[in-house]
Amino acid sequence: MLIDTHAHLDSLDNLAEKLEGAKKAGVGRIVAVSSDPDSSERTVQIAGEDEMVYAAVGIHPHEAARYSEQSLFEIEKLATRSKVVAIGETGLDYHYMNSPKEVQKESFRNHIRLAKKLKLPVVVHVRDSHEDVMAILREEGAWETMGVIHCFSGDWETAKTYLNLGFYISFSGVVTFKKADDVRDAARNVPIERLLIETDSPYLAPVPYRGKPNEPAYVRHVAEKVAEVRGIPLDTLIEETSLNAKNLFLFTSEDVPTSLSYRIRDSLYLNITNKCTIACVFCGKWRSFMLRDFNLRLKKEPSVDELMEAVGDPTGVNEVVFVGWGESLLRLDVVKEVVEKLKAKGVKSVRIDTDGLANLVHGRDILPELNGCIDSISVSLNAQDAETYARVCPSKYGEKAYPEVIEFIRRAKEHIPEVTASIVTVPGVDVEKCRAIVEGIGGVEFRVRTYGRVG
Ligand code: SF4
Ligand SMILES: [Zn+2]
Ligand SMILES: [Zn+2]
Fold it and tell me: What are the pocket residues of ligand 1 if the criterion is a CB atom closer than 6 Å to any ligand atom?
């Protein structure tokens, strides 16, 4: 099934005909994006009328002059309607400069904040504005909510920066244009699990329709070109990009309800956040929020009460494990409270996996607070030096993060009975050097996980 991840359906003539044409071309889903509050209203309506259409709501940078607290409030209300799967499009466009830079920036920042609040991905438009877009994504911690740089028209170096910020990259008809060698180079190199395709209909029709109105059916031409430059079969490209789109835009969660907690034998697993401090290149969440048969994509961060309700009666539970696609220690207070309640009900031991950056994030040494609460901790070391770490686990902290991880492991031993340091065998990570670092710390287990098999 092809998925067109970006089309302005409210701007298409003869929409019913175009949707029919898309179905015939093998398009199974379309994410219809909006340009302003009126367009968002129409788009949500279109999604309600056609099974294959989902909506993104927001104010385009061209329309940023229409941005106000009130108009964003209208967007927020629309975002709670069914089949709304993203906020957007938003971003910065310094090419046409239809709205002043400062207004665009304010609108962009507040769209990201809204997306984070509603736990929806954000659809980002960039034109002649990479530097400011990157700075805002970084400052706003946009990777927590994830999103896509749509209609990507930069080079591979630029794409890499967005990937490091935790974003997917979506290619449009531009990839078929004669002079777009840089874009094709990026399309060749973006990791397959972070790649999306789109039309941006009715704009930017791919060759052989260039200059004519674009429509979702033409996403097949984009797919063909991207498959060609990557040297892979078209079917594979379609299958992989559809998986990514389903994951990013939460389509998976329609089929499988979210699990806040589940039990396997005498272990109880808790899923408390999808937020991360880092955007690990090896993370399985880029492809799917499923873990075994459980959907761990949270539409809302659960409260202590909601978690306890999901747990039910913990009789027979020996071990509690904080799992999921996220950094549990970002919700330190929730972890402490839930553990206290569970231990009072007879749970013996608690295990947690962490990135080891909690002290940096919270601005204090949190390890004494885990004393008597956490019995076993596994810290992702992930690299032999700061430079490799910043590449494998990029974050707004850059190379400052790595020494913090080492220090966290060192101090963890003073407060937690069992400490493990783990790595994933990403190319460039030197297993033996990592082992030597861990042995140098002493009293810490060392665990190696194979790249590509991380759950
Ligand atoms: S591996 Fe963990 S910390 Fe890294 S991005 Fe994935 S969920 Fe976040
Ligand atoms: Zn755009
Ligand atoms: Zn668009």
Answer: 276, 278-280, 283, 285, 325-327, 355
